[in-house]
Input
Amino acid sequence: MLTVEEALEAILSRISVLGTERVDVLGSLGRVLAEPVVSRREIPPWPNSSMDGYALRAEDTGRGAALAVVGRVEAGGLPARVVGRGEAMRIFTGAPLPEGADTVVPQEDVESTGDRIALRGTLERAAYVRHRGEDVRVGDRVLEPGRVLTAAEIGLLATLGHGQVRVYRRPRVAILSTGNELADLGSEPGPGQIPNTNTYTLMAQVLEAGAEPVSLGVVRDRLEAIEERVRAARDEDVLVSSAGVSVGELDLVREALTRAGAELHLWQVSMRPGKPITFGSLGSRPVFGLPGNPVSAMVTFELFVRPALLKMTGRRRLTRPRVKARALQPVPNPGSRRGYLRVQLEASGDGLGARLTGEQGSAILRSMVAADGLAVVPPDTVVPIGGELEVIQLRELP
Ligand code: AMP
Ligand code: MG
Output
């Protein structure tokens, strides 16, 4: 059986970055930049004032200097004349500095008598002046490809006049839930039926990974039906199914994938929850057969599908941050497979403490709902109270 690391490596070695597309600048939030951005503007475009006050010449700013106010310039306007010796011009934040002036004195630092001002103190040359190009120069390479775009980058793109930007494409991910027992949202489960959970958790996880989910609905445990649904997803970039990948008589997903033309690369990984996970290629497209229990499906998505989707979207960091936490209760992982146990994190001493989110069965979805992270615990181990746990952090810390 493969280790989690071996399986992930086998998967990622067969995943490549998708193509690129141009999108509106706001739509690029959270996407990965696919081109360098070189500035064709100077920011700011001309010297301007960072305060409401008076523009003047530094040489005139000795203590007690009295200057004639010769005009006024507001943001959005232009100075009507130059500022000469012994003169000052009323100026507002963001207004262009008049020619001749090199310094701004804030209004609170002068005594004003309408058409004359007297300075209260001394000033340094160039005080309160924002210089042309002090933020960005023409020709500056301000953003590199591979950058994940956030609000600041989007502001910069807008400042530089880019209404659109080239980013990596988002994979379209087909989600298929298999099982005779599944009743989908919108119908009450009848006798012997259970609600379909996985379609929704997996589609949400796809969205969280910055990709685009496409539901293929629920399909019965019939070879031809599964095969046909797999073939119907041929235009999507990735296929993710859940359930039907163990060794039971009704576990038909692997065979259906093969019949639809997939080459399967791996099956079964030494982990708990989630041992039976299948990965293969349908032509150039990756396919994942995840286990059916809701927690197993979520955890295997987290460990294997999410990194693959991130790689396809051009991201370089493919895994979540890991933090160390002290066990606040004994954390047992009996058996021969590595455990990914759901834990809640809390401040404890000068670090973090972790406690299990209750029952850890792979069908106990609430163990996942309450989880801040997955504690990675070696096989046949009980981590004692105070022992160190390595935790894959799934959400912002409380
Ligand atoms: P299987 O791998 O088909 O044996 O499924 C394992 C367990 O997961 C069974 O108890 C199924 O009923 C359950 N299961 C399978 N698919 C889903 C689903 N979409 N939503 C909730 N539970 C499911
Ligand atoms: Mg089944």
Remarks:
- The chain has a mean pLDDT of 96.
- The pocket of magnesium ion (ligand 2) is lined by residues 179, 221, 243-244, 250, 292 (CB under 6 Å).
